[in-house]
């Protein structure tokens, strides 16, 4: 035992150096994960790293392509801005902005960018949309996203339908549950996966590794949902439409 202790004392500098190097490496890895993958202590409109396969099922008019939605490290669809991107335009809104059923290149946000590119070749348009949200949700989203997004030159907010539907309680109840606003505005909230990016990433990799290869991929059959709505609306008579309209006066 004494010999072991003597060896430890003789090597204490090397041991301290090793521990210090390990601590620095862990700190650097944590910083890199938060910078380029995601920060688990932040709040995001969509969860970074999340993806969803969308099937059109030949049931959505003018949509003829299956696609996959991938969420980047900023919690939004598409690619994050590069160092050369200018101007940087963030677009907030509901499903019209997010354009769930369309591939990224066909979304309204990307079409805005394509139309601006002749006069602004390095323009970046970011899709900060989330289906179902309205102006009240944007008041929750805005102070969160500005904490970690690169400099944004302009914010564009598309308002309208969801605000109208909520104010008339067409798609929402008169009383909202506790934390409903925040849960609707943000898919990922502070600390949902803990406080360490390394540990959160490790858990994600383990889940991916332990998931059987035959497990079904998360998918959205949006075409069937749209068909159900069309079939339901087709059964509503003109008399019902007038009688069931809310009293606006």
Explained architecture:
This protein has 249 residues and is an alpha/beta fold. Helices cover 42% and strands 11% of the residues. The strands form two sheets. The chain has a three-stranded mixed β-sheet. A three-stranded parallel β-sheet has the order 4-3-5.
Notable characteristics:
249 residues; alpha/beta; three-stranded mixed sheet; disordered C terminus
Strand and helix layout:
Layout: H1 2-10, H2 12-36, E1 51-55, E2 67-70, E3 88-93, H3 95-98, H4 108-116, E4 124-129, H5 135-145, E5 154-157, H6 161-167, H7 180-185, H8 197-210, E6 219-221, H9 222-234, H10 238-243
Parallel strand pairs: 1-6, 3-4, 3-5
Antiparallel strand pairs: 1-2
Helix count from the secondary structure assignment: 10
Strand order of the largest sheet: 2-1-6
The major sheet is characterized as: 3 strands, mixed
Task: Name the poorly predicted regions.
Answer: 245-249
> In which range does the helix fraction lie?
40-55%
Number of strands: 6
Strand content: 5-15%
**For the terminal residues, how far apart are their CA atoms?**
90 Å
Shape: elongated
Overview in brief:
The protein is of the alpha/beta class. The protein has helices spanning 2-10, 12-36, 95-98, 108-116, 135-145, 161-167, 180-185, 197-210, 222-234, 238-243; strands spanning 51-55, 67-70, 88-93, 124-129, 154-157, 219-221. It has 10 helices and 6 strands, in the order H-H-E-E-E-H-H-E-H-E-H-H-H-E-H-H.
């Amino acid at each position: 035992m004494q010999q072991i202790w003597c060896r430890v004392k003789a090597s204490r500098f090397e041991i301290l150096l090793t521990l210090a190097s390990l601590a620095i490496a862990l700190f650097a890895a944590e910083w890199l994960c938060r910078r380029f993958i995601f920060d688990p202590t932040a709040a995001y409109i969509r969860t970074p790293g999340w993806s969803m396969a969308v099937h059109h099922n030949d049931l959505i008019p003018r949509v003829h392509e299956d696609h996959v939605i991938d969420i980047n490290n900023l919690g939004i669809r598409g690619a994050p801005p590069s160092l050369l991107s200018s101007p940087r335009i963030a677009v907030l809104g509901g499903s019209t902005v997010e354009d769930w059923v369309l591939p990224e290149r066909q979304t309204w946000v990307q079409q805005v960018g394509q139309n601006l590119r002749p006069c602004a070749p390095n323009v970046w348009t970011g899709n900060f949309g989330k289906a179902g949200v309205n102006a009240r949700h944007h008041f929750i989203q805005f102070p969160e996203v500005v904490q970690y997004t690169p400099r944004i030159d302009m914010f564009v907010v598309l308002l309208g339908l969801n605000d109208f539907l909520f104010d008339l309680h067409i798609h929402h109840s008169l009383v909202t549950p506790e934390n409903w606003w925040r849960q609707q505005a943000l898919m990922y909230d502070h600390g949902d996966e803990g406080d360490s990016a390394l540990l959160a990433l490790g858990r994600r990799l383990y889940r991916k590794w332990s998931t059987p290869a035959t497990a079904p991929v998360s998918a959205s059959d949006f075409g069937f949902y749209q068909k159900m709505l069309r079939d339901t609306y087709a059964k509503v008579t003109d008399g019902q439409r007038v009688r069931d309209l809310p009293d606006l006066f």
